[in-house]
Amino acid sequence: xxxxxVSDLGRRDILLMAAIAASFGLSGLATTARAEASLxxxxxxxxxxxxxxxxxxxxxxxxxxxxxxxxxEGQVLNVMGKVLNxxxxxxxxxxxxxxxxxxxxxxxxxSDTNPAPLDPNFDxxxxxxxxxxxxxxxTTIKPAAYPAGPNLIRPAHIHxxxxxxxxxxxxxxxxxxxxxxxxxxxxxxxxxxxxxITNALDATPDLEAGSKLVIFDxxxxxG
Length: 223
Ligand SMILES: [Fe+2]
Description:
By secondary structure, the protein is α/β, with parallel strands linked by helices. The chain folds into 2 domains: 1-37; 40-219, Aromatic compound dioxygenase (Protocatechuate 3,4-Dioxygenase, subunit A). It has 1 helix and 12 strands, in the order H-E-E-E-E-E-E-E-E-E-E-E-E. The protein has one helix at 6-36; strands at residues 76-84, 95-100, 125-129, 135-141, 146-147, 153-154, 157-163, 168-175, 197-198, 200-202, 212-215, 218-219. The strands form 3 sheets. Strands 1, 4, 10, 11 and 12 form a 5-stranded mixed beta sheet that branches. A 5-stranded mixed beta sheet has the order 3-2-7-8-9, with no helix packed on it. A two-stranded antiparallel ribbon has the order 5-6. The termini are far apart. Mean pLDDT is 88; it is low at 1-36. The structure holds fe (ii) ion. The site of fe (ii) ion (FE2) has 5 residues, from strand 7.
């Protein structure tokens, strides 16, 4: 009768696991290599301390607060884009959560100690769904840069958390030309930071006069 010592069984198990891992690993690498030939995943960024505590409203217009007649202060932005996977396929019904500071650099979050004023017409968050083509869009105002420590000013940015069927991505969208982009440790920690920097373009005629158009596509691994 064959007998095995504990160390023999351990070695056999390790070899078996290594073989399984290698077969999965090889097929995974092949898939990734094929997919990365088309698109690159949007770099992740920190969630940050101001993720909203309460449920985010389902709205595509952050420039108005339900029940209030005024409009948020600041440059109106039409932010739109697609959520895609590495193969370029649209991610349908993805949940897109967005949150941001107001035009003075202040979040509505109770932990924000920035003395900049709140805007009564801006709560600064929303939850959206992508459509059948993976598209999302919302209207907001351009956030301002804000102090985040004794020697740190965060450049203007909008936070995103995107949840598909297989993946969740937490990231931040930045604006080209912001003087604080070059010194921001979070933006500069991204491997391909240019994927997070957008241009605020002049609005097309179908959009609100004086507003800007910002296009930000988001790429998940599988979707
Ligand atoms: Fe932030």
